[in-house]
Amino acid sequence: MRKLKIIIIILIILSAAGFAAYYFLADNFALLSKPLESSDGSYSINVPISWKDKTSENSPATAIQAGNANDSMYTQLSYNKTSASDNTIEEYVYSYINEIAENSDDPLVQVISEAPAQTILGDNTGYYFELDTISDGLSLHIWSFVFISDGGYVHIDVAASGDKIKDSANTAKAILSSVKAQ
Q1: What angle do CA 139, 126, 138 make, to 5 degrees?
Q2: Cα separation values, 164 from 31, 41, 72, Å
Q3: Average pLDDT estimate for 68-95
Q4: pLDDT tens digit sequence for 169-180
Q5: Are 10 and 2 contacting, i.e. CB atoms less than 8 angstroms apart?
Q6: What is the band of 77 on the pLDDT scale with cuts at 50, 70, 90?
Q7: What are phi and psi of 22, to 5 degrees?
Q8: Is the dihedral of CA 44, 52, 57, 102 positive or negative?
Q9: Cα–Cα distance for residue pair 175/169, rounded to 1 Å
């Protein structure tokens, strides 16, 4: 009987240590992330280690694409090398926001929840904004960051759907801050 009590106590201690480690690591993006690189080696981002690289499923302008297992959150890094000389970054940001609206279910429903503002995320200076939209019947919250690199515009978006949008904000901002232009 004494051995059984000792085994139960050890199991309880190990369970408590496991829960503590989980909560410590859950907030530590650097320890629980993996790098993804564009096929040409120009850009890289870090995503949660459990996410799947979906870059092969992309459009020609998309350099990196990844998402979680149930597709309730994903990220996409795209670049447009020809437009940097055509308009200012501010004009590009607003045309990009309009493009997102045009591709949504109803452009009139799209709401800019955080207006574009110049900021530094990681190694890059650009424009950060957030918006809410509906696409394919899903309500999405999108965190976006646009910056200039090698004469073109780079935009990275992180989108989340469902009831965990607020919980996704730290992950989204960590992904946006991890972008590296090689």
Answers
A1: 5
A2: 22, 32, 9
A3: 84
A4: 999 999 999 999
A5: no
A6: very high
A7: -60, -50
A8: negative
A9: 10
Sequence-ordered alpha helix ranges (H) in the chain: 2-26, 89-102, 165-177
Give backbone dihedrals phi and psi of 59, rounded to 5 degrees, phi first: -90, 165
The sheet that has 33-37: what strands, in order across it?
33-37, 43-48, 180-181
Nearest-angstrom CA–CA distance, 149 and 174: 20
DSSP codes of every residue in 118-162: EEEETTEEEEEEEEEEEETTEEEEEEEEEEEETTEEEEEEEEEES
Radius of gyration of the chain (CA): 20
Tokens of 69: 């297992």
Q: What is the DSSP letter of 51?
A: P
Token reading at 143 = 């965190």
The total of other beta-carbon atoms located within 10 Å of residue 153's CB is: 24
Structure tokens at 154: 């780079």
pTM above 0.85, yes or no: no
Neighbours of 17 (CB within 10 A): 10
